[in-house]
Amino acid sequence: MRFLDRLQPLALLVLRLLLAVVMIGHGYGKVFHGGLAQHVARVSSMGLPGWTAYLSAFAEFFGGILVLAGLFTRCAALAIAIDMVVAIWKVHWKNGLLARGGMEFPLALIVIAFALMCFGAGPIAIDAIRGVGRGRPKPKKV
Questions:
Q1: CB within 8 A of 67, min separation 6: which ones?
Q2: Which of 23, 39, 115, 130 could form a disulfide with 64 if both were Cys (CB 3.0 to 4.6 A apart)?
Q3: Cα 64 to Cα 1, 67, 85, 127, distances in angstroms
């Protein structure tokens, strides 16, 4: 099964693409077309400060774009994970795990974001071009 190790870069790319598409899709309506005011009202009605709606919307939309590009992936994945934790806490928890409106989907997104925080964007990403996530260079033997 060691041959599957060669697919790890592709696996990280697929995880990034899935998380990015979902988050951009959810964040787009909140950021554009007047959705931000509605999102602020919704977040305020849940007992959270209205300004946190901006953090939520931007984490979803712009965080999704960053994850898509593989740029600042670990930071963007952390923001997305925090956003999903709050979504579970304030919206989905009362519905349980598998019921309609349950927390299974945001929980899956947290797990994907956590994997990207741990492993980084992989070699098919702007972060890899920038040299992020490679660790310290090994000392040269003289």
A1: 16, 19, 20, 23, 73, 76, 77, 80, 116, 121
A2: 23
A3: 32, 5, 16, 15
Instruction: Return d(Cα 67, Cα 4) in angstroms, integer.
Output: 24
pLDDT in tens, 27-46: 999 998 878 999 999 999 99
Confidence of residue 134 (pLDDT cuts 50, 70, 90): low
14 CB-side CA count, 13 A = 5
Distance set, CA 117 to CA 63, 76, 137 (Å): 13, 9, 21
* CB neighbour list of residue 109: distance below 8 Å, 6 or more residues apart: 19, 22, 23, 80, 81, 84
CB 119 within 8 A of CB 9: no
Q: What is the mean pLDDT of residues 77-104?
A: 95
Q: How far, rounded to the nearest angstrom, does the alpha carbon of residue 25 sit from its chain's CA centroid?
A: 12
pTM: predicted TM-score of the whole model, two decimal places: 0.88
